[in-house]
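re: ur question from earlier - yeah i can do the single chain one, its not a big deal. heres the input i used so u can compare w yours
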Amino acid sequence: KQAARPDHRNPKANDFPITANFTFKIGSSLQSKINAFLNSADFSDKVLRKVFDHLGGEGEYSPEAARRLLSAKLASIAGEYGEKYDQLAAACEKWDKGHATYLNGLAKYNEGLRQYEEGLAKYNDGEAQYAEGLREYEEALQKYNDGTAQYEQGVKELENAKQQLEDGRKKLEDGEAQYADGLKRYAEGTEKIDAAEKLFESLGACRWISVDTYGNSSFVQLGTAGSNLKSMEMTFSLLFVLVGALVIYATISKMIDEQRTLVGTTKALGFFNREIFLKYLLFGITATLVGTLIGTIFAGTWVQYFILNGYNRYFNINLVKPTLVLLPTLIVFVTAAALAVAAIWIACRKLLKQPAIQLMQQSVPKGSKNGSGAKTGLPLYSRLILRNIKTDWKRVLVTIVSVAGCCSLVIIGFTLRRSVQNAEYKQFDGIIQYDGLVRMDPDADENTVNGVEQILTEAGTDITPVHYSYITVNIRKPDIQELYCGDLAGIERMLVLNDVGTGKPVVPTDDGILVAKRFSEIYGLKVGDTFEIALNGTQTANVRVAAIFDNYVGRAMYMDNGCFNKLFGKDAGVNACMIKLNGADADTLLASLRTVKGYESYRESRDAKPLFDAATSVMNAIVLLFILMAAVMAGVVLMNLTNIYIMQKKRELTVMRINGFTVKEVIGYVLRETVITTILGILLGIAIGSGIGYRIVRSLEQSFVQFDRSVALSAWAIGAAMTVLFTVIVNIIALRKVKNLKLTDVA
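and the output i got, formated as tokens:
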């Protein structure tokens, strides 16, 4: 390898052929293989001489000496490598291949050297040309230096021009953007104008319909809600005014009866009747005004917030600042004072007419003129109770009215709650049988209707194609209703439309329109009447009322295709489908419908149910409010009346205890009257509560909502039970005084 390595610095030193093959196999004897290799290899004399000189041979050169020296060297190297000799042999084989490549490269190198020498000659020729060019360059350099000043001046002018160009480009871009935006708006405006012109040409002669503020649905709903509250003013006012006046009258009457001796003494000392009346008047007026003030504060804060919070679900109402209207408040105070004066005057006038000596004597109960009381055959307790009721009818009347007030408040609350819940149940579980309404635009594509119906049919749904639109009804004032026009028999597969007169399903007909019961009540319509409707605000017609059906929510009207054709001279067309899902997944179905060009929306048939849910929650709160008011009335009024009764009968009850009656028997004697007054009060409360509850239910109904108006037997039972509970609690507290009666109470 060393002998064959080329010398790149002296190419001529390597121009000898290498013909020996250095690759051999190692057998059992290394030395014999080396000798066999050397003997078989065809080394030239020139190669052997170079090997002899390179390996440092001594003595005179000879081919045999060179072979021996090379054999010894190879043996030495093979001994050093040992087991790695095979690797060395493989490397030698690779070296031979590489050496052949090297020889090819060497030939290319020699060719390149020749080209280099030729280039060198050309370089020398070019150097002379370079000298000539250098002279010319120096002359041009002088010219360059002279032009540098001009160049720098030009650069400044170029920078200024570039800045002006950039500013101009920016203005151009802004102008192009404004132009593109304006062009887009112009195109949109042109399309709108063209569409409007086409619509205008198709309209022909128009008929204008002028509406006032009642044409705004939000205004109408807010006004209706306000009128509903206003209609409840006298309902509750009369109830509480009646109870309040009777309580004042009973309280003052009993106070004067208890103080008749004091009144007689005062008159004997020279006081005038007006001075004595003024004392009780001041007492009654003060108590009334203080109670009215407390009630006003309570109503203007908690009750007002409580009621308005229910309406705040639908309207934006400021609940932070309480509202107090001065004039109604003054009317309440004046009315309360007037009622107090009237009640006190009625209670005092008869007593104050009696002379002082008669007042200073004990009051003697009036007996029966014909003595029939003793001949009735009733038990002693019953005769005593009848006598007490007759002699103390004022207190008994007030007690009955108070019990009736408690009972009626509870009945009113539960009647309202039941009316709302039953209306929801009847509407969504009884009348509505379909699941939703699919709306589409048939003008968007000629295959819209077929595409929607195909998807609905493939999904396994039951469909009824209809024309759905809003119509304007003009009866005394404009109103908006929803019109469903199609095959009435198909529509009645989706709805239960019962005639309000017969209670049977409405018979399909093309001679008129079907209207809801609430709509007919508002506008005073009956079967056979006609009214004007406007389609799309332009096409008007007078339509006959063919039937009136039960409905609790919504503004729906139904018409047969034949009737529509008679009224407007054209077919209604199909732009919606009433569907029953029949177990199909609504989300999957809607995803398929959205792929149809012209599909618009899907509205669930129960989308108005949250309105009833919210109303039910409000009614639940109202029920709690009425129960609280009933409890307060029982706790204050009934407790006061019961205490007055016990104080009045204290002497009689004490005598019963002295004569051997037990506490249980005395309490039973008192409770007999309580049972009678409670039963009479409950009966009166059922009548009052049912009447007021029905009135409130009707006043809360709106043009698109009707509540259940049937008799609320469950409300009667709950009202009676809670009234009995309140009465029992009051008597348990008040009749504890019977145990503490003393002998001195007889005096």
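The chain is about 65% helix and 10% strand. not sure if urs matches, ping me
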